[in-house]
């Protein structure tokens, strides 16, 4: 597609519910990133994929967070037993290959509200 | 411990004048800096970057200045236009540790350009 597509755009979850957030990167983009943006904060790194390999998951806040990209294209970020502190915008980004001067292309994000 | 700081939450300028957005960092391992622009309900969009081997990078109306000794960078927009009204994020990455893909963001500055 023309850009990074994320779905759903908005998700309201009851505390304790599991959620799955989807990211469709730009076609052919090798690198894929997930970031979490809490209200009033900048995005914070969660995890990084190169093709289907998850090379870095150091930013995942707890073992309730899990990300996958099984075929090297679409990625899913799953949050189990959601808590109120998980409320944030989850941003996905992709790049053809990581080139430091060019940044990544972000999607519009999924706003998760845990009630 | 915030490694990238944008101390001005907001800035208001008149159309046609210069906008100066500031960013400070504490991690001396950062060697690449990027600016992103974000409109409401959209993901951040890459604007301009600078490597630590330079002290200035210019792209049209946008210029980024880097002062390594002061650990400070700034984004200048000249002339400012109403369409520049957005949140601007400063981000940095470090070459060392094999994770130069990981961006550390500031909290952002809301720029409002008044017609």
Low-confidence parts of chain B lasting 5 or more residues at pLDDT below 50? none
Largest sheet of chain A, described in full? 7 strands, mixed
User: Looking at the structure, what is the overall shape of chain A?
Assistant: globular
Multimerization status: heterodimer
Measured between the Cα atoms of the first and last residue of chain A, the distance is: 33 Å
Order of helices and strands of chain A: EEEEEEEEEEE
Mean pLDDT of chain A: 94
Order of secondary-structure elements of chain B: EEEEEEEEEEE
Q: Give the largest interface.
A: A-B, 26 and 25 residues
Give the % helix of chain A: under 10%
- Rg result of chain B: 14 Å
In what range is the share of β-strand residues of chain A?
A: over 45%
Largest sheet of chain B: 6 strands, mixed
Query: What's the number of helices of chain B?
Result: 0
Task: Work out the number of β strands of chain A.
Answer: 11
Give average pLDDT of chain B, whole number.
94
**Which class best fits the helix and strand makeup of chain A?**
mainly beta
Which structural class best describes the helix and strand composition of chain B? Answer: mainly beta
- Basic shape of chain B: globular
Written overview of the protein:
- Chain A has 115 residues and is mainly beta.
- In chain A, strand 7 and strand 8 form a beta hairpin.
- The relative contact order of chain A is 0.33.
- The model of chain A has no long low-confidence stretch (mean pLDDT 94).
- Chain A has no helices and eleven strands.
- In chain A, strands 2, 4, 5, 6, 9, 10 and 11 form a seven-stranded mixed β-sheet that branches. A four-stranded antiparallel β-sheet of chain A has the order 1-3-8-7, with no helix packed on it.
- Chain B is mainly beta and 115 residues long.
- In chain B, strand 6 and strand 7 form a beta hairpin.
- Chain B is globular and about 45 Å long.
- Classes of the chains: A mainly beta (115), B mainly beta (115).
- The interface between A and B is medium-sized, with 26 and 25 residues.
